[in-house]
Design brief:
It is a single chain. The two termini are about 50 Å apart. Helices cover about 5% and strands about 40% of the residues. The longest helix has 24 residues. Strands 1, 2, 3, 4, 5, 6, 7, 8 and 9 form a nine-stranded antiparallel β-sheet that branches. Strands 32-33-34-35-10-38-37-36 form an eight-stranded mixed β-sheet, with no helix packed on it. It has a four-stranded antiparallel β-sheet with strand order 11-12-13-14, with no helix packed on it. By secondary structure, the chain is mostly beta strands. The protein has three helices and 44 strands.
């Protein structure tokens, strides 16, 4: 109650601000012109006198005032005033003297006429008052006294936004139980794997170091089909402990591969031929070039396909300013159009000039590549690899691309991406999923739509992004009013460090996983998107140590595989492939306890503590009343909630249902509580203790009355 009263007082009391100048003119000789206050919040008085005139009625307080006779006095504010308080009075001979108030555009916004009584002039102006004038053409005095003003406070210059230390505080919860079955090991850095249409016994995986492997589904044997490591840049950067984002990054088979024999790769190659796309300033050199290549392969042979190494045809070549953020994922839609994910050019923050590996970044411009629709960096492009209407004549550009006959590159399908490292289509819905690796805070799963702007580098995830010079960039709270598309799913760096995209599961052996998008994080966590469109983490019940997650693979049956190595760098022989499946989950057993019969107003405890889970999963409770006079439970989410039986006029039954879930499946049970209309602690036929209490009170009153009669 006290706090409510305090709030009410706050609402009723006028809020005041500290004035910049307050004076009753009790100063030494200030005749003529004088200035009070401290710059830039000063006020200057001219054509009047601050003085003692020996006439007590001219002073509201003290013994001096600002006096004007036969003149027009000016009160001028160095910084416009938003609050002015002053008292005005005139001798009888100066009645009619006028005060005019001017705004910052020198327009009169208010006027006052002096009388022989003190009147208050109180001015509040959001825009600001520049000056006041007191016009008195009489020899008698018109005066100001008890003057104060508050200057307009200029808005602070735009500064750095406030960093969000924990932008997404909710944790990722556990979900389905995961079984990881080792398929093969001894690899280096397997990044991505897909099936070849018309081939059922193998799927094909790219090694970052330049090899294409055929993985035999029946025995897990990995066979090198192609090795283009000699065509790549040298993989492994010493300054980063051998880490690298360059290499053989993507593979995709044409949907008509069984008839046209075409498949495609995306790789990082040394600077060579002139790039088709470049953001590099004149007389500068890119770190490397991203190259999209077409290959031919026949179905057959011991590993399902036979690659023609002489068939390579280059479709496009892109200058990459730095070694990282290459994207490199490629995927076909059902219509034979090829989507290529291309990063923002690398470095950090997508801004020129920042230090990166002891050199200032170049190739990003002042505002970055992500929001520049005239550059191919930071985009997903869509092309027809069988066409030829591109500028270089090596591929086609679909007429339906969003920027055809509009501003921007015709190849662009979507933009505003930082490092769309993995890309895949839902084979049933046609939705395009892109995992975009974040800068320092947010990891994203995006569903890509034609013409979509996914925010980078003005946004990271659903937050504003501030590059912060050579210090680490960060996210801040910002309304999405920029026509950007927020991620479908996002998580912050409390949960991971770099998202690794995967596939939507449409295999046949795992009904629990059907239709879920499966992905992971470089730090080794494996996730999926559940029915509520939120992230859940698989329970690795066998505690298989997978090391760093590098990618995923999908075979011709829609089964999924996890691609990992122990080091996180493209070196060594710790790379492994695991087949993913879930362990069937048994539903919990719900037990709502035994029926009870109680009296009204009695304390009652419900009891579901005998509920159990055959898999020993943690179970959760949710109680609800389904019939009877409504009561309030002490808690709906504990095993043993309590309540007080209601007051009733006749015996009634209350029914309660408990839902018990293990995070995946739920079961329910009900229990009845019968309430009798007999008060609690009844004493029997005489009405119980309450009746005895009434008899006792009556007896006591009677004795008191008799005693008073005797006293009379």
């Amino acid at each position: 109650m006290l706090s409510l009263l305090f709030l009410l007082i706050l609402c009723l009391v006028k809020v005041s601000f500290a004035a910049d100048v307050t004076t009753s003119f009790e100063t030494t000789d200030l005749s003529g012109s004088f200035t009070l206050g401290t710059s830039p919040n000063t006020v200057t008085f001219t054509n009047g006198e601050a003085k003692f005139a020996g006439i007590l009625s001219l002073y509201r307080t003290g013994s001096q005032a600002f006096m004007v006779q036969n003149n027009t006095a000016m009160v001028t504010f160095e910084t416009p005033a938003v609050i002015i308080d002053v008292y005005l009075r005139a001798q009888s001979g100066a009645v009619g003297a006028v005060v005019n108030v001017y705004d910052i555009n020198d327009n009169i916004v208010d006027s006052y006429t002096a009388t022989t009584s003190w009147q208050t002039i109180s001015i509040n102006s959001n825009e600001g008052i520049s000056r006041m004038e007191l016009i008195n053409n009489n020899p008698s005095y018109a005066v100001f006294d008890d003057f104060s003003f508050t200057a307009l406070t200029a808005p602070p210059p735009p500064g750095d936004p406030i960093k969000l230390d924990d932008p997404l505080p909710l944790p990722i919860f556990s979900g389905l139980k995961l079984k990881l079955e080792l398929v093969t090991t001894g690899l280096t850095a397997p990044l991505w794997g897909v099936a070849a249409p018309g081939v059922s016994d193998f799927f094909y995986v790219v090694e970052q170091t330049g090899q294409i492997l055929a993985i035999n589904k029946s025995d897990g044997i990995a066979t090198v089909l192609m090795d283009i490591s000699a065509d790549l840049v040298t993989i492994g950067i010493p300054e980063f402990g051998g880490f690298d984002e360059r290499g053989l990054l993507g593979i995709a088979f044409h949907p008509d591969f069984a008839s046209n024999n075409k498949f495609y790769t995306y790789s990082s190659q040394p600077n060579g031929a002139m790039a088709d796309f470049s953001t590099m300033p004149i007389n500068t050199v890119a770190d490397h070039q991203g190259v999209l290549t077409e290959w031919l392969a026949d179905i057959g042979g011991a590993e399902g396909i036979i690659i023609d190494m002489a068939s390579a045809r280059e479709l496009l070549r892109i200058d990459e300013p730095q070694f990282n953020h290459n994207g490199g994922a490629i995927a076909f839609d059902s219509n034979g159009l090829l989507y290529v994910a291309i990063g923002d050019g690398g470095g950090a923050d997508d801004v020129d000039g920042q230090d990166f590996i002891n050199s200032p970044m170049i190739g990003h411009g002042d505002s970055g590549n992500g929001q520049n629709i005239e550059t191919i960096l930071g985009t997903i492009i869509r092309i027809n690899p069988l066409g030829n209407n591109s500028a270089n004549g090596a591929y086609g550009i679909p007429d339906s691309n969003p920027m055809v006959n509009a501003a921007g590159l015709d190849e662009i399908y979507a933009y505003g991406l930082r490092n769309p490292y993995r890309l895949s289509f839902d084979s049933q819905t046609g939705e395009l999923y892109a995992a975009d690796v974040g800068q320092n805070d947010i990891e994203e799963i995006n569903i890509i739509t034609s013409g979509g702007n996914y925010g980078w580098n003005i946004r990271e995830g659903s937050f504003g992004f501030f590059p912060n010079g050579n210090d680490n960039g960060y996210v801040f709270e910002q309304a999405d009013d920029m026509n950007t598309i927020d991620p479908f799913i996002e998580y912050d760096h409390d949960e991971g460090i770099a998202v690794i995209g995967g596939f939507v599961y449409h295999g046949s052996i795992d009904t629990q996983l059907q239709g879920h998008y499966v992905f992971g994080d470089y730090n080794g966590r494996i996730f999926y998107i559940n029915q509520e469109s939120t992230i859940a983490e698989f329970q690795n019940v066998d505690n298989v140590s997978v090391g760093s997650i590098l990618g995923f693979a999908e075979d011709s049956d829609g089964e999924l595989y996890l691609l990992t190595n122990a080091t996180g760098i493209p070196a060594g022989s710790t790379g492994s492939i695991y087949q993913l499946s879930t362990i069937p989950n048994n539903p919990p057993v719900a037990d709502a306890g035994v029926t009870q019969t109680v009296n009204e107003n009695q304390f009652v405890t419900l009891d579901a503590s005998m509920s159990s889970d055959p898999d020993n999963d943690t179970i959760n409770f949710e109680w609800a009343q389904t019939s009877g006079t409504s009561v309030t439970l002490s808690s709906r989410t504990v095993a043993k909630p309590t309540f007080t039986a209601p007051s009733i006029s006749s015996t009634t039954t209350l029914t309660f249902r408990v839902t018990v879930d293990d995070g995946h499946l739920a079961t329910t049970a009900e229990v009845d509580i019968t309430v009798n209309d007999v008060p609690m602690d009844s004493g029997g036929g005489g009405g119980g203790s309450f009746h005895y209490l009434l008899l006792f009170l009556g007896y006591s009153l009677l004795r008191t009355a008799n005693k008073k009669q005797l006293d009379l």
